[in-house]
Amino acid sequence: MAGRVASGSRKGFVRALPLLAPAYLWLTVAIFLPLSAMAFFSFMTELPMSGRAWSFTLQNYIAFFTTGVYGTLLWSSLRLGLDVTFWCALIGFPAAYVLAKIIKGRSREAIFLLVILPFWSNGLVRVFSWTMVLREGGILDTALNAVLPFRVSIDLMYSYPAIIIGLVHSYVPYMVLTCYLTLQAIDDALIEAARSLGASRLTVLRRLVIPLSMPGLVAGAVLIFVPVVGSFMEPRILGGRAGTFYGTVIEDQFVAVFNWPLGAALSFVLLAVVLVILALASPVLRRGN
């Protein structure tokens, strides 16, 4: 019996190979080839295209451990990722619940359009639009002074809250969409049964809805945390001096300093840290799923 199952699995794989080959070929070219090149650069003293003599070295990785500022910036980036993930969950989960369980028909389609609207605009334009809202004398400042009987001065530019706002705007759709898929899969009869047995709305949310929607929350958290830790555009534009994080330092190595070996080494250190965090959290993630 086991032999027949294995033979059937092999035949199924052979039949599916023509369909799988393009995707795996693309993944190999688009992911592993650039990563291999970056790994090669990270062990070099100079780039071959610079025209200077180069050799292999571990100094680029040693620099991370001997230069305290890199560790400090990495911790700041991890904290930024946690903060953005928290606010995305706080905003995105209720929105997903309303979309999945309360709003129906064309109204849901209209709200979905608003949710995915950030994906349709250029990221750079999206970030610069926040500079017109958050600066002193900007849209937010002008609107509040037009409504309030006293004058206020709102200037959030070049601050940590401005970075959080820009990143949450960019990534909260991921949380809404992943949570919506899991919330929609929850049978309404379960919620109605819990309510009929006397459970309050808060109890239903805490004991039923949130545990069953945990896979969506976990997926959204991973999709948000990983790119936010290495983000550089929003911190650079909205944070100014306060926006110096690990990702901005890596960008500087590639763009400003042209020290690609060090930038590649710092990138792989970040990749290793993220993988370790995901590995440590994998038991929790499995329980959530």
Automatic annotation (TrEMBL):
Keywords: Cell membrane, Membrane, Transmembrane, Transmembrane helix, Transport
Gene3D superfamilies: MetI-like
Entry similarity comment: Belongs to the binding-protein-dependent transport system permease family. CysTW subfamily.
Main location: membrane
Name this protein carries in UniProt: Spermidine/putrescine transport system permease protein PotB
Localisation per UniProt entry: Cell membrane
Domain ABC transmembrane type-1: 74-281
Superkingdom assignment: Bacteria
Taxonomic source organism: Nitratireductor thuwali
Membrane topology according to the record: Multi-pass membrane protein
InterPro entries, sorted: MetI-like, MetI-like_sf
Stretches that traverse the bilayer: 23-44, 56-78, 84-103, 110-128, 158-183, 204-226, 262-285
